[in-house]
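#data-curation
PF: Archiving a pair of folding outputs for the training set. Convention for this channel: one message per protein, sequence first, structure tokens after, nothing in between. First:
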Amino acid sequence: MLITNAPKGTNDVLPEESYKWQYIEQQMREVCDLYNCSEVRVPTFEHTELFLRGVGDTTDIVNKEMYTFEDKGGRSITLKPEGTAGVARSFIQNSIFNNPMPIKMYYLNSPVFRYEKPQAGRYREHHQFGVEMFGSEEATIDAEIITIALDLFKRLGVGNLELNINSIGCEKCRPKYNEALLKHIGASIDSMCNSCKDRYEKNPLRILDCKNESCSTVVANAPSTIDYLCEDCAEHFGQLKKALDSTKIKYTVNPRIVRGLDYYTRTVFEIITNSIGAQGTVCGGGRYNKLVEEIGGKPTPAAGFGMGMERLLLVMENDGVDIPEPKNVDIYLAAVEDDAIIKAMSIARQLRGEGIKVEAPHIKRSLKAQMKYANKLSCRHVAILWDEDIKEGNALLKDMIEGNEAKIKIENIAGEIHNAGK
């Protein structure tokens, strides 16, 4: 183990890449604002029981992937493996439910931790953008959740997406479906993986989410959840389709989508791309009407989604999306003499107050070396500061594109730069 190597499944975001993150974060904030969603920030770790009760003890996340430890007070703590449970906990603890409904919240660049095999755009520590809405039973909320995600993809220039939707019913109709599913699996259970054998007894619906080839073969022709929906769930799913149709959003009803978390009820959906191969889901979510109640709150309908930011950036790269690069340095202040170097600090602050991006001389170099450095920074201007010129309030301003230079008053530098940008 080398301490200068990051742990497996983690990734550095380097200075030359961070502008891409900042760009998509800006787009996320702007889209959410259009939908009247406000940002929420919750802790990186929570009490382990929150995820056991909220996410479900039959899920792979809880059984295999959580980073759980005991703190110095003897409490079981878990680094959050997903974003929704923490937001729901905050909704209860901070009495957000007392505010006018529906409550619309989002989080972004939120670290999520799962001990799993690293894959394309997914690391053991990755980051999520998510939207959660509380307080409405209406299918229009489910549709709005979906449109937020699609609007973001459109704004970012991501295309070739497919929306898959399904309904997995509620506590009323789920038992009948589970009975049909168990009957279908029947004698084939011995050929399935150990996890599915456990799910067979505890939570049969989870079997549909298994990626094991032998398990997938068994459930390939399994009954559809849609065929077993109760009247209320069937009506809700019908309203969702009508809402999506009204906004001209194309979708495919995919009866195999169940999602990997136990808190989902009724609507589940995935947005899929072919840009990153087999691991093509770039956004997933749905309705979770029982989660708030399950973790100790009052019954509250809710819906939301999560989107991996690393995976989103990978899709954008594979789709050839151009992300605007950061603004170049407007001016470099070149100085060799000690007094001039100190004066450059004062000038730099004044220029920054005018909204000008400035780099000052923090390493002693020859003037020739500083001019080369300014070129590497792609500076449009260089102001050369000599002690004698400074005493007269002057600087030699060089335009690195036009190639001309002129001695001007230091107080006029900002105006010259602003005029050059017009």
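PF: Second:
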Amino acid sequence: MYQRSGSKAIKKDLTNTYALLKGLGNPHEKLKCVHIAGTNGKGTSAHSIAAVLQAAGYKAGLYTSPHLKHFTERMRINGQPASEGFVVRFVNENKSLIETVQPSFFEVTVAMAFQCFHEQQVDIAVVEVGLGGTLDSTNVITPLVSLITQIGFDHQELLGDTLEQIASEKAGIIKKGIPVVIGDNHDELRGLFQRKADSINSPIEFASDSYQVSALNNKVSVTSGTIEVTFDPDIKGAYYKNNLAGTLGVIDQLQHLGYDIGDDYIIRGLSNVTELTGLKGRWQILGDKPLTICDVGHNEDGLESIVRQLKELEFDKLFIVFGGVNDKPWDDLLPLLPKEANYVLCQPNIPRAIAVADLAQHFKKHELNHTIKEDVNEAIAVAKSQASEKDVIFIGGSTFVVAEINDL
């Protein structure tokens, strides 16, 4: 299980996934899908597309990972997690198949999700890649349209040390003859995506060519040609606007395929993503006085965006409850964090976590003021006990820190 153990849990081919799905009768071949890969933004994009489809009256499946609180969050239908009864039944009915194939946790989960969506006869399934693209277990589907969101540095030990290597791995979801929307805005990667699409006759759209997105006072304006639409998204992370062009490019492709998704449905969906899909942990407000926020952003681009948005807030003092995993380049990440903040370091309860004492050594090296409280919720309590009503508390550094917040 990658989220607990790291790269040793990864199986770098699709043999097990195909074997599982064959044993289930290949449910993935009976689904209409949208497939999404990328470093940052793929989760919010997946939830946003599902929300728009729901608003338009479609029965939308949504597969994402990892989960925060409950395993069943990984497979939702119209925002509702799969039932625990379905999970128990799936495992009981397929125990001998699973024992024969010996798949990873993720491989079983992908097969389970496709079976769930098939049984529930979803109109369309929005499927987020787990890690990478080419050899990710989700890459067995032939989607209606693919989306590649922002590319950045993360999981370099598995995906490569350059943006080009990482982008090439993500581009593995591009399928022959299937349109792909590129939400990423790195000019230096444009040629790589174009060549990959051209080589397999995949129509390609660079979303930034079609949509211009701007944000002011919590509202977002999207301009396409002579049309401008303004709405108030319920995802308040400043990074959200970076993903909107790609999301809208996918919606446009679905419209061309005959899906009835008018502007009213788009605005309703994008304005109510968290309500419609149950999305959590994206610039989520947990309380006021002091303003308390959490976010799952954990790589270079994600942390930069979070810190930028924190600095735009008004406060007397900034408290940051922070923890992470042991395979991150901490000496590259910590210089991004605000020097003036008061840090309470913690350790999520997974084997992959960086020991809080080791993290403290990195913080000491970078001269960041910190105290230690290993348990996530005890660390939050320390920050709350020291903060005044005019201060801000931020909780993050890792998906797994956010997952352990009691009040999430």
